[in-house]
Specification:
Blueprint (H helix, E strand, L loop, with lengths): L1 H60 L3 H15 L2
Helix pairs in contact: 1-2
């Protein structure tokens, strides 16, 4: 009976340690995935901003004179260029 209790306790300890390790690794993986996802969203937002700026710049190129200059200036301010 003592041997059985001792081996049960050892099995429980091993199981608890394995669960702790699994939880730690799972948490690390989730944090890494979140970081990668956030970076991808930021990159996508920057790419969209660049594309929107290029489109606005093309629209400004269709204008002439002061209107073109004002349009380009506003586009630069709006898109942070």
């Amino acid at each position: 009976m003592l041997v059985s209790a001792k081996s049960d306790a050892k099995a429980q300890l091993t199981t608890a340690q394995a669960k702790t390790t699994a939880n730690e690794k799972s948490t690390e993986a989730q944090m890494k995935a979140t970081k990668v996802g956030n970076e991808a969203r930021q990159d996508a937002a920057a790419d969209k901003r660049d594309a929107d700026y290029a489109l606005e710049k093309t629209r400004c190129d269709a204008l002439a004179g002061n209107a073109k200059d004002m349009c380009a200036s506003e586009a630069k301010m709006h898109y942070g260029k």
